[in-house]
Amino acid sequence: MSDQLRANALSTRLKRFVVDLDRKRLFVAYSGGIDSTVLLHALWRLQQHFELELVALHADHQLQETSGEWHLHCQAFCLNLGIPFRARRFTIRDIRSKGVEAAARSTRYDWFLAQTGGATLVTGHNQDDQAETVLFRLVRGSGVDGLAAIAPVSELGGSLIVRPLLGESRADITAYAKYYHLVFVKDDTNCDVSIDRNYIRHRILPLFRTRWPAAEKTIARTADHLQNQRILRTKNARADLQACHSDSTACILGDFGRLRLDHLIGLGAVGMAGVLRYWVRKHGMEVPNTRRLMELIHQISSGGRSRRSAMRWRDGEIRSYRLHLYLIPVQPHPCFRGSLAWSAGKPIDISEAGIRLRPVRKQGRGLRISVPGEAGLTLDWRAKAEMIQPVGSAHRRSVKKLFQQAGIPPWERIRMPKLYLGEKLVCIPGLVVDREFAAQGLDMGIEILIDPLIAPSSDPNHEIAVVQRCGVW
Q: Domain boundary residue among 198, 231, 264?
C-alpha cells in the first residue's frame, strides 16, 4: 500500500474519532516525536471542518542535551500551523524512588492535567506501544489489569485522556509522516537496548514478526480482550466498594474514607484485592504490587478480633482501627517527640508533625482571648499520662480516654500537640480546651484549628517551626 493510501486511511479513522467527540477543545501532548507530530498535524487538518480548538503541550524534562532544540522545533512547528503552544521545563525529582521514566511521566502528566482544567488530553500512543507494553508487563508478572495495558480512553484528575492512534501501526504513522513531509525530532535513547522497553522494540518484536508478521496487531487485540475483563472487574469492584465504604469523621488530618472490615472479609481474597486496588486507584495513587497487597489481605483475614493491619508504600498507607480499614496519605516518618515555644497568636507550620495550626477568633469558643501571647506557652508532643477538665465536665478526664471517645486513630494522636502554659495543660488543638482557660458565653475566644500540612505557606504571617527534638517515638 502506498504512503498516500495509508495516510488517507489514517486520516479517515481519525475523522471518525473527531466526529464522536463531545468536547471539541483538545490539548495535545506534543513531544516533537513522530507519533505526536502526526497526531497534531492530522488533527490540524480536521480542525476547520469540525471547529476543533487545539492546544499543544510540550514538556521539556531536560534529560537530553538537545532538549532545548526540541523545544524550539516544536514551537516553530506549532507557529507554522497556527496552533497555540505551551511549554514548560522541568527538573525531574523522585528518580531514586520511581526511576527516570516513571518520574518524568508523573511530572509531565501533573502539568498536563493542570493545563487542561478538566478538558480532553490527547496522546500519540500507537499499536506498537500497546504490544510493547503487554510484553513488558507479561515478563514482570502483571495480572489482568496490567496486561490490559494502555486504555483507549481513561480519566485522571477530572480530565479525559484519549489515545486515538492506539489502533494505528507504527508503519502507518511513518507513511503519514513521509507523505506530508513532516519533520520530527528523534530521541537517540529510544535505540538504547539496555532499556527494557527498547529491548522489546528492537530485539523481541522483530523476532516475533519473522514468525508472525501481524504480531503487534494480535498482541494489541489481546489487550483489547483484557480491557473488557478489566471493565467488568472494575464495575464489580465499584459495587463492592460502595457496600463496604463509610465516610470517616474521626480523622481530622486527612483520609480517603474507610471500609468496614466485616463486609470486606466477606468478599474473599479475590474480592478484597479487587476492592483495594480500585479504592487506591480511585484516589489517584499507584497500586501496591501484588505481593504487598496479598500480605495485607492475609493480615486482615487472620488478624482475629482486633485485626490490626497496616501497609505503607510510596503513595499512601492503609491502616486498621476499630474494625475499619483506612486509606490515608503517607504519614510523617520517622515521627518524633519534641516541643517548641509558640505564642498562639499566628498560624504555624510544623513540618515534623505534618500539621498546620491556625488561631481563629470565635465567640464563646476556644481559648480566652487573653491566653494567646502569655509567656511560657509551649507545644509538646511527648507522651504523658495527662488529665484535663473539659468545659461542661464536673471532673478531670484522661486525655487518652478523650481521644478514644472521639474515635481519633492512633496515627493521628501522635501528630497532635498539647499546648501548655508552664506545666499546666491548656488544650489539645482539634480535641479539647481546659475549662480554666476556655472562652465561654459571649466572650470572644481563640479557637486553634489543626490541618494537615500539604505545603509550606507563602503567607508572611505564618511561622515555620523548628522543633526541639526530645527523642524518637
A: 231
**Which one-letter DSSP state was computed for residue 340?**
E
Amino acid at 104: A
The arithmetic mean of pLDDT across residues 258-280, rounded, is 93
Q: What is the pLDDT of residues 303-339, one digit of tens each?
A: 654 557 889 988 889 999 999 999 998 887 655 577 8
* Residue 346 placed within a domain: yes
* Spatial distance between the Cα atoms of 180 and 38, rounded to a whole number of angstroms: 9
Pairing mode of beta strands 355-363, 367-368: unpaired
Q: Is the pLDDT of residue 462 over 50?
A: no
Distance between CA atoms of 319 and 258, rounded to whole angstroms? 9
CA distance 334 to 450: 20
Q: Are 345 and 373 in contact, with CB atoms under 8 Å apart?
A: yes
pTM summary value: 0.74
User: What is the average pLDDT across 35-57?
Assistant: 94
- Beta strand spans in 270-323 (E): 310-312, 317-321
* Residues whose CB is less than 8 angstroms from the CB of residue 219 and which lie 6 or more positions away in sequence, other chains included: 130, 131, 134, 135
What is the rounded distance in angstroms from the CA atom of residue 23 to the CA atom of residue 122?
12
pLDDT digits (tens, 9 = 90+) for 109-131: 889 988 998 889 999 999 999 99
> Cell digits for 402?
478523650
Q: Which structural domain range is residue 37 located in?
A: 3-231
* DSSP single-letter state for residue 334: S
